[in-house]
Amino acid sequence: MPATGTSSDGVPGAPATRRAVADRPPRRKKRLYQHLYFWVLVGISAGIAIGLALPEVGAQMKWLADLFIRLVKVVIAPTIFATVVVGIAGLGNLAKAGGLALRTVVYFNVTTVFALGIGLVTINVLRPGDALGLDIETFDASAAEATLGSAADAGGGGFTDFLLYLVPESFFSAFVDGQLIQVLVLAILVAVALTALGERGAGAVRALDTISRVMFGVIKIVMWFAPLGALGGMAFTIGEYGSQIIGSLAYFMVSFWLTCLLFIGLVLGAVCRLAGFSLLKYVRYIKDELLIVLGTSSSETVLPRMLVKLEAAGAPKSVVGLTIPTGYSFNLDGTAIYMTMGAIFIAQAFGVDVSVWTQIALLVFMLISSNGAAGVSGAGLVTLAASLAAFETVIPLAGIALIVGIDRFMSEGRALTNLTGNGIGTLAIARWTGELDRERLREVLDDPGSVDTDELLRLDAEQATTPAPGAPAGTADADAVDQAAADVRAETARPASR
Fold first, then answer.
1. How many CB atoms sit inside 10 A of residue 138's CB?
2. What HEC string does the chain produce?
3. Mean pLDDT throughout 252-258?
4. Is the model's pTM score more than 0.85?
5. Membrane-crossing residues (predicted)?
6. What is the per-residue pLDDT across 383-407, written as a single tens digit (0 to 9) for each?
7. In CA terms, which of 37, 265, 373, 469 is 20 to 30 Å from 336?
8. How far is CA 399 from the centre of its chain?
9. pLDDT band at 243, cuts 50/70/90?
10. Do residues 384 and 409 lie in contact, with contact meaning Cβ atoms separated by under 8 Å?
């Protein structure tokens, strides 16, 4: 039987094998075509080619991206629930969990303020909307009707409606509807209850840890459909909207992408330096996930992989399990940049001069309204429209129609920035709490090939079949897992060749 005890996962009795696999040197170097990122790049390239050469065909291929995203979303809610519960329960006491939650909220709000602020500064300096010179009296806003309708539903009654939105109508409705922020609230409540139970809740924690590992096994299978999802998403984007990348709209898109890069380089780069690691090395480490997000325009598609990779890089499961799922609802840096830039761009297009104080008020309002944006379909555009509704006397709400057509091209920038910010935030918070394994992080970032994400996902799935401590193995499969765990420990004991 594999050695047990309290693992690095924080789960009593769980074999501590994930870190072992992450620590062992790879048996042989993978060929280029064996890497997931290679096939995602092939899918993106093929999608661009189809969209340019056969736009009518490309416009009909969105179903591939939608299918892939649905496959991932099937397991995201249970994965987040199980991971958050196990992570908080692994902290051992509620005071420690509360301290981690407070640090997480403070960090997320500070970086969001920086993102909103940088968006305001760059849009006022570059002023891409001035050249349009539109008149609200003659402007056709029909393209924005669906978005404005969604914004009306999302905007609701402000803060009180947001509080109501946090609580699902039933325990299972949050999972059925895929409302991640509601799943997170339920997970925190269950984790607090299990922590209060002490040893009596240990069995439930182990069961949830097993569920989490099974979900990671499913994700490993689903991820090999990522190239098809990237192909369909990129073919649709180029085929459907390629003709709209012209004039001042193109200038606005370029301004947005440059602002995202500026935020990542300056703000997130500074966070990386304070936490003691290199931004460029970190980006190289998550290149697979960045490419998948680029192709699908959804950062949710790589959430389970990020959980695994950040833990393997030296962040404890208790921190990863809380900060990553929370960040998907409360740390949307790319969305924050998009919201401030989009609002002022619309004002510039109609010749509206927005005062400094109004822009500050807009920033504060968007800081609040952006929380939980991931739970809204078409989060960035709909949340922007809902925010503009509160300032309609200053900025024409109908102007949202200006950016409906190009939103798809900007969604990739939002998703990539959100993903990068959440990962860096997790490592920074782990450093802040003093729980980051800095030596392990340095080794992983210097040699990303030392971490095989697919192997870690496979291990999690296999470990789910390992019997509880003291129970007989009972099956050949369980014995095979035990032997694999023993092999891992033996390999870890040998010096790693680098």
1. 6
2. CCCCCECCCCCECCCCCHHHHHHCCCCCCCCHHHCHHHHHHHHHHHHHHHHHHCHHHHCCCHHHHHHHHHHHHHHHHHHHHHHHHHHHHHCCCHHHHHHHHHHHHHHHHHHHHHHHHHHHHHHHHHCCCCCCCCCCCCCCCHHHHHHHHHHHHHHCCCHHHHHHHHCCCCCCHHHHHCCHHHHHHHHHHHHHHHHHHHHHHHHHHHHHHHHHHHHHHHHHHHHHHHHHHHHHHHHHHHHHHHHHCCHHHHHHHHHHHHHHHHHHHHHHHHHHHHHCCCHHHHHHHCHHHHHHHHHHCCHHHHHHHHHHHHHHCCCCHHHHHHHHHHHHHHCCHHHHHHHHHHHHHHHHHCCCCCCHHHHHHHHHHHHHHCCCHHHCCCHHHHHHHHHHHCCCCCCCHHHHHHHHCCHHHHHHHHHHHHHHHHHHHHHHHHHHCCCCCHHHHHHHHHCHHHCCHHHHHHHHHHHCCCCCCCCCCCCHHHHHHHHHHHHHHHHHHCCCCC
3. 93
4. no
5. 36-54, 74-94, 106-126, 180-197, 218-238, 250-275, 344-368, 380-404
6. 787 778 778 778 887 788 778 767 7
7. 37
8. 29
9. low
10. no
- If we measure between CA atoms, which residue out of 448, 411, 441, 439 comes closest to residue 426? 441
- The pLDDT confidence band at residue 145, using thresholds 50, 70 and 90, is low
Token readout for 410 is 């900007």
Distance set, CA 23 to CA 371, 444, 456, 463, 466 (Å): 37, 9, 11, 17, 21
**Which of 440, 433, 129, 409 is closest to 311 using CA atoms?**
440
What are the residues facing 263 on neighbouring strands? Answer: none
Contact 430, 113 (CB under 8 A): no
Q: Which two tokens stand for residue 24?
A: 């062992």
The label of the residue with tokens 């924005």 reads 144
Tell me, what amino acid is at 421? G
Which residue type does 345 have? F
Residue that is written with structure tokens 């620590």 in the block: 23
CB crowding 432-455: b at 16 or more within 10 Å, else e: bbeebbeebbbbbbeebebbbbbb
